[in-house]
Amino acid sequence: MYEAIDRYVDSLIRRSTPEQTAWNIEKIRQGKATDWNYIDGCMMTALLNLAEVSRRRDYADFVDRFISHFVEDNGTVRTFRGEKHCLDDINEGRVLFPLYLTTGREKYKKAAAYLQGWLMQQPRTAEGSWWHKEIYPNQVWLDGIYMAQPFEALYQKTFGERDYTDITRQILLVRDRMRDPETGLYFHGYDASRKAFWCDPATGRSRSFWLRAIGWFSVALADLSEILPEGEDRRQITSVFVQLMEDMARFRDPRSGMFWQVVDQGGRPGNYPESSGSAMIAYAMLKGARLGVLPEKYRGIGKQVFDSIVQSCLTTTDDGDVCLGSICLVAGLGPEDNRRRDGTFEYYISEPVVSNDAKGVAPFLLAYSEVIRPV
User: Fold this and answer.
1) What is the per-residue pLDDT for 86?
2) Which neighbouring-strand residues pair with 140?
3) Residue 235 and residue 239: Cα distance in Å, rounded?
4) What is the value of pTM for the model shown?
5) Looking at the 3D structure of the chain, how many domains does it have?
6) Domain of residue 160, residue span
7) Alpha carbon distance 268, 353 (integer Å)
8) Over the stretch 100-145, which tens digit does the pLDDT of each residue have?
9) In b/e form, how buried is each residue of 292-313, taking b as 16+ CB within 10 angstroms?
């Protein structure tokens, strides 16, 4: 059933270099060269996970060459623009820690410190949450939790003082401000200032439950459950994680076996089972069960979701090429001069659906790594 997946990974790597990757569809469509970005960062994380489980040293070597291309000997990162204060741009840095530990190359340690320095300058809401980006003042997005919090946890664990209280505080703020008490689902964004055109002026929340946003948050919680040591911080984060998985499981589509692009609107015209967010939930469930954080039943549910993606979205062309489809290319909220991105159901189903983009491929491979990992 999974024979094509390894061939798929090999094909993607063979067609990718640090200057141009086969999986960053946004860059390909824009005709731009690869830079330091979260999309490629997701793939680097997935490839390192897969290298560990499959013992494919060539995967790890590819990641090393790819990241080394951007990291200078003094630790600065080519094409990284810290003044943008963009949490997305921190994400690729999480692979610096395993690369440093396996290669011993000092430039990776220096680069981690370089990114950490910028992260400590990230603007915050009055309550202490990092803004998602400089261009989104006072806004917290679920995506940003994945982009920055595992990096911060790895930095604290590897080079820092092992103080995880800020991470825990920000995640609990997300739970308190962005969770819908009726469904247990999380809204995509929250504006602490209540000024964004897309937010509810009373609550600051956006309007809909976008699958991939919840997926990013779920993956972050799963990864933090592994990174953080036993203690109160880990206990509080895993509590949020367990509750979210319980609530998400109720929204799985029994027909497709996956989750819907707009999670709570299953079957509504225009809505569709989306592969990237479904893969993220599958990964989170599988990993959570392996860590003993989630009940064992979630290993079975996660495996079922993954197999549904394989059956419905992984295809082979007549030429033998493998393709992962049903991936929402991108979605966001605003900014002010882009009012089409208003967080409504109609908006989320209007974004392009593509194949082979890393925002879907990477979580698919993360879930695959958990499926084939020895129990």
Assistant:
1) 98
2) 190
3) 6
4) 0.98
5) 1
6) 3-372
7) 17
8) 999 999 999 999 999 999 999 999 999 999 999 999 999 999 999 9
9) ebbeeebbebbbebbebbbebb
DSSP per residue over 205-240, as a string?
Answer: B-SS-BHHHHHHHHHHHHHHHHHSPSSHHHHHHHHH
User: Any idea what DSSP says for residue 124?
Assistant: B
Nearest in space to 228 (alpha carbons), one of 236, 240, 217, 218 = 236
Quick: pLDDT tens for 43-72.
999 999 999 999 999 999 999 999 999 999
Amino acid sitting at position 242: V
Residue 120, domain CATH: 1.50.10.10
- Contact 7/365 with Cβ under 8 angstroms? no
The first and second tokens of residue 200, run together, are 């509810």
In which residue are the tokens 């008490």 written? 181
Task: Give the torsion sign (CA, 307, 374, 365, 289).
Answer: positive
Distance in angstroms (rounded) separating the CA atoms of residues 187 and 178: 5
Please give the Cα distance from 33 to 203 (Å, whole number): 40
Q: Comparing C-alpha atoms, which of 344, 360, 352 is closest to residue 209?
A: 344
Q: What is the largest CA-CA distance in the chain?
A: 56
pLDDT digits (tens, 9 = 90+) for 65-91: 999 999 999 999 999 999 999 999 999
